[in-house]
Amino acid sequence: MENKKRIRYQINSSKFLTDFERLDFEQRLNHAIGRDIKRFTPILIAYKTGCRISELRLLDTSSIDHDGQFLFIKATKGSNDREIPLEPNIYALLLQYIQDARVKSGSVLFPSHRSSIIRAWDQVRPVKKKFHSLRHTFAINIFRTHRDIRLVQVALGHRNINNTMVYAEYIYSKEELRKLISPVGA
Length: 186
Prior knowledge:
- By secondary structure, the protein is mainly alpha-helical.
- The protein has a single domain, classed as hpI Integrase, Chain A.
- The chain contains eight helices and three strands; from the N terminus they run αααβββααααα.
- The protein has helices at about 20-35, 35-50, 55, 90-100, 115-125, 135-145, 150-155, 160-180, and strands at about 65, 70-75, 80-85.
- It has a three-stranded antiparallel β-sheet with strand order 1-2-3.
- β1 and β2 form a beta hairpin.
- α2 packs antiparallel against α4 and α6 (about 135-145) runs antiparallel to α7 (about 150-155).
- The longest helix has 21 residues, at about 160-180.
- It is globular.
- It starts with 18 loop residues before the first helix and ends in a 5-residue tail after the last helix.
- The model is unreliable at about 1-5 (pLDDT under 50).
């Protein structure tokens, strides 16, 4: 039997939106949603929940917990299902989207084809990065804010913590390198 080495996935700034890119993206996205809520809301939901595009396309009206303002994400790629809390303004925008798009109870929230979602992403992305960079950006932001790798694991639906460790390793190595080059006492 052949002994296969598993190449460890590396995270770097080409795989997520940097702080500058994120601010530019948020401005572009807010402007785009103001013009066309139906086309750009899926991008916002992916950004705020860490949904893969395949998971985004599985969301339906029953995925929304209106009492707790959570979004239930059915996992793909062998990961775990998860519930992600929605910020009140994102929840309100999702309800507005449902009304404007005339989404019926029990229907899929975002019936667009994968290619339509990617084209919308191409219109608002600040730099040439893949749609999946929204998921990485979501994870990096959680880890930077909370310093809890287990929380990142649950939010992404990873079954194995090793898949999640790349985010902690990236942030940790950047901070340690910053300390190395920063003047003493600064």
